[in-house]
User: What shape does this take?
Amino acid sequence: MTSAIYTASIPVFKQMLSGLSGVLAKAEAHVAAKNIDPNALLQARLFPDMFPMLRQVQVATDFAKSVAARLAGVQVPSFDDKELSFAELQARVAAVLAFIDSLDAGLFDEAATREIVTQAGTPKEKRFTGQSYLFTYGLPHFFFHITTAYAILRHNGVEVGKKDYVASY
Assistant: This one.
């Protein structure tokens, strides 16, 4: 029987990252069709104190790979955050999809009770059970950054909708 934590995480990450990839493809086509500098969208923000769209994608993919890795009890892959183009963001999404696809469902058998310790950008560590980590920390942050990347692109005229956001299920 497949772990409930696996079922609640890996398919969700895969679906939403596939949607993000599709949204990024539409954004790239939009800038080409309108003869717009890609940085107008890559560096766009909803508000000056928020991350730009490019960074939103990096953080969303960071959450997908790190949450999946910690729940599976494996090393979190490290990325350099050097992407500067839509093509490089697409490669990053593809790399994260390949990584989470490589995680055997059996690695998640004890994930609900596995202790997860994080230091989310601060020296103060947080301790979670795997279940709490996924549902109260990992998924909310992942969805925030996926949604914000989508909203930035939509706000800037990229013709995307809910079907693009949720992808196929």
